[in-house]
Structure formats: structure tokens, C-alpha cells
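Researcher: Here's a chain I'd like modeled. Treat it as a single chain, no partners, no ligands.
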Amino acid sequence: MVMKPRKSGARAANIGDIIEFKTPVGLAYVQYTHQFSPKQGELARVLPGLYASRPLDFAKLARPKELYFVFLILNRGLRTGAGQMEIVSNQAVPECATAPPLMRHTASFDQFGRTTRWRFISAGCGLTLPELQRAPLTFELTPEQKKLSIHQIRPAAAMLKELARGWTPERAEEFWLKDQAEAAVREKEKAASGAASEKGMQHYLYIPRKADAEEAGELLRRRGFSVEVRESRADENWLILATNAPPKSGEQMGELRDELESLAAQFGGEYDGWEAPLDSLAGGPGKGGQRAN
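Model: Modeled as a single isolated chain. C-alpha cells:
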């Protein structure tokens, strides 16, 4: 896969940088606050408001309490974001946002993919088994707990969508239900049209523990992947076979690869590459399947 060169003047983000996202409904801003692990993404605070034009006072912009924190695949987005995001300022991180925030993290799902239990962890948690076992659990969130940031990783394209539609942690289930309903409608329309289903791009992730593989698989289902979890025939790991439509560009493929690598790393596993039919990659990221063995 050949990546496009970084835009002239673009650089890797530094702590305190304010990044502008050009959404379809206005300009949105996040501030990069923490880096815990390269595979975990960059933690950023989402600043309130959408703007018709770029603010003149970024120090003032950075002062209010954030809407929430989120892990982003930030630096790749800055390199390949096609002008949709850029660093526009660097400001001191407010004192109230310097400590790693407490976040909620999905502990289990029901058969429909809805979270049934949450655990509470620090953003700086390495997501190791001992750390997760020590984390407090709850079946039902209080109104205050619903406002806690959700421990998840978003690529730039997904973040643009969520900023544009006003996603917040307390509205997460509302938007999830909306996404599920829209996906069901698309499936019905596809079935009614009699269109033959095309084989998509298959991604291979290997996770040591079955419970972790099931959890990672459910996170991928929420992203629109068709997922199968089974024992690996090659070793003692569990295989997650995730299938989705191939990305439309090399930039999107690179971003997706980073997201899948980060997801696998969260559960102590690894992303082992992808396979896809040649004809599905026309104009896409490469030629034929590229799966590591």
C-alpha cells in the first residue's frame, strides 16, 4: 500500500495542540491532552460548540470544561485527513483536565450488542486482565455515570461523524439505537432489491482469551462488521474474522488498519492482516489479499 505524503507544513501533534475538524455543519475543536501508549491512540478532550468560522481566541476556546474525552487515531488523521482536520493552536491544558479521567468501559453485551455491564477505569489503565478484574462493575448507570467518557478508539472519519451529529456519552445509547435501525433498513432494502451480496474484505485478529475475543468482536459489530469468533487452528489464540466493505482509498485503509491494530492490542492480541477479492479493490488500497502469516 502506498500512502500519500504528509501535507506541507503538517506535523505530529503535541500535548496541548488544538485540532480543528471541518464537519458538514461547522467547525469543531478537540485538544490533545495525554499519550499513554502508541497503540492506544491519543487522548483528547472534545471542546463545546460548533463554529461557522475559526475563533480568534483559542485560549478562551480551551478554558471551558470539555464535553467528554475520547481516544483518537490522531496523527494518521492529520497526515491523511484530506484537509478535514488540522492543528490550529497550542494552549495549556486546563488544570482540571491534566489528570487521566475516569472512563466507562464495556464489560459485557447482550445478544443484540447492547452493553449490559460497565466497568469504571482510568484512561491511563493499560487494560490488562488484572486491571480490568479490579475495576468496579455496574449493571445500571446513574445519570452522573452516563456522563462519563466512554473508553473507545475512534479514527478521524468516525470522529467527524460524531462531532457533526452532536454525539455525547449520555446520548450514546440513543445514537446506537438509531444506527441499528438505519442498518436494519439498509439490509431490508438490499434484500428487497434482490442484489447479490458481494464478498467483502476479511480482517484477521488474534486474541488470547475467548471472553476478550467476544468483547472485541462485539465492538466490531457495532462498527458495522460481520464478525465470527472461533478457536484458531494454528495456536491457542481465538480468531476474530471481521468482514466489511473494502475502504475506498489507501488513506482509509491505513486508518482502518491502525484502528484494528489498536483494538487487538487493547486485548493483548494482534491484527494479522486482511484478504479481499481482486475485483473488490479496483481503485482501492492494493492488489489482492495482503494477509500476514
